[in-house]
Design a protein that fits this description.
The complex is a heterodimer. Chain A is mostly beta strands. Helices cover 0% and strands 50% of the residues of chain A. Chain A is globular, with a radius of gyration of 13 Å. Classes of the chains: A mainly beta, B mainly beta.
């Protein structure tokens, strides 16, 4: 199985900051990686697919990059609505795996 | 409006069975791969199962293989997850999820609690 390691597990930041979350795969997954945002008590929301493609309706302050085994999610100009938990997910193989999650907190 | 609505969750004793259902609306179900993803209380997301549009390809996570069965009825716009031999560690919110590029449409989830 492909393991996906996400870091950091928690991140403290302020409104207006730029933050980066990293996801590393245990083997190459080409660009078959997605990023999700989840708020408490809600279903996850797709932000980025195939590593760098912005889902329709997602603000352009969200961006994704990377290929192979290392990927990043960057959020520029943090807004109050962005404080949530973020997950990466590989879908290179059918045993899909998620990262452990990054909780983005207000500093 | 594209929507997925899960039902069938509840409290069940260890070793018992439960069948989850997911009603799809606003899109043609047969055109999409569907998945079940779960989230244990206070924990992260765990992929559970995958079914192709025609049901010709099915996959399960190792943690549920042999106990859970995914199925779909495209004519009725529905997806199901039959869960047998339930264990305490199956306690979670179960999400029905459409797959396009990534997991793009999620239901609100249905809670399953396995406890005596």
């Amino acid at each position: 199985d492909i393991q996906v390691t996400q870091s950091p597990s928690t991140l403290s930041a302020s409104v207006g900051d730029r933050v980066t979350i990293t996801c590393r795969a245990s083997q190459s997954i080409n660009n078959w990686l997605a990023w999700y945002q989840q708020k408490p008590g809600k279903a996850p929301k797709l932000l980025i697919y195939t590593a760098s493609n912005l889902e329709s309706g997602v603000p352009s302050r969200f961006s994704g990059s990377g290929s192979g085994t290392e990927f990043t999610l960057t959020i520029s100009n943090l807004q109050p609505d962005d404080f949530a938990t973020y997950y990466c997910q590989q879908y290179y193989t059918y045993l899909y795996t998620f990262g452990q999650g990054t909780k983005l907190e207000i500093k | 409006e594209v929507q997925l609505v899960e039902s069938g969750g509840g409290l069940i004793q260890p070793g018992g069975s439960l069948r989850l259902s997911c009603a799809a609306s606003g899109f043609t179900l047969s055109s999409y791969v569907m998945n079940w993803v779960r989230q244990a209380p206070g924990k992260g997301l765990e992929w559970v199962s995958y079914i192709s549009g025609s049901a010709s390809t099915i996959h399960y996570s190792d943690s549920v293989k042999g106990r859970f069965t995914i199925s779909r009825d495209n004519a009725k716009n529905s997806l199901s997850l039959q869960m047998n031999s339930l264990r305490a560690e199956d306690t979670a919110v179960y999400f029905c999820v459409r797959e396009d590029y990534g997991l793009d449409v999620w239901g609100q989830g249905t809670r399953v609690t396995v406890s005596s």
